[in-house]
C-alpha cells in the first residue's frame, strides 16, 4: 500500500521546477503539507482542489515521513 501511495508523488523537471508534485499536476507536495500544517482539514483541501483525492494527501504525508526518516536523499531513491 505504501508504494502505491508513493507512486502518486512524481518528480518531473518540466513541472514546478522539478519539485515533488502530486500525479504530475502542478500541486507541489510542499504546498499541500503547508496547508495541512496551517490547520486545514483534508475535507477543506479537497473542496478547494476538486481534482485531488484523499489518497493524494495521504501520499504527501507518507512522502514527508519518508523524507524525514531518510539518512540521506539517496535512500529515498531505493
CATH topology: Arc Repressor Mutant, subunit A
CATH architecture: Orthogonal Bundle
Q: How many distinct folded domains?
A: 1
Q: Give the DSSP E fraction (strand runs of 2 or more residues).
A: 5-15%
Q: Describe the strand arrangement of the main beta sheet, using strand numbers.
A: 1-2
Rg calc: 12 Å
Count of helix runs: 5
Unreliable sequence segments: none
Helix content: 40-55%
Question: How many strands in all?
Answer: 2
Q: Please, could you describe this protein's structure?
A:
Strands 1-2 form a two-stranded antiparallel sheet. The chain has 5 helices and 2 strands. The mean pLDDT is 92. The protein has a single domain, classed as Orthogonal Bundle (Arc Repressor Mutant, subunit A). It is mainly alpha-helical. Helix content is 53%, strand content 5%.
Give a short synopsis of this structure.
Helices cover 53% and strands 5% of the residues.
Summarize this structure as a short list of keywords or feature phrases.
mainly alpha, 53% helix, globular
Secondary structure elements and pairings:
Layout: H1 2-6, E1 9-10, E2 21-22, H2 29-37, H3 42-48, H4 54-69, H5 73-76
Antiparallel strand pairs: 1-2
Helix pairs in contact: 2-4
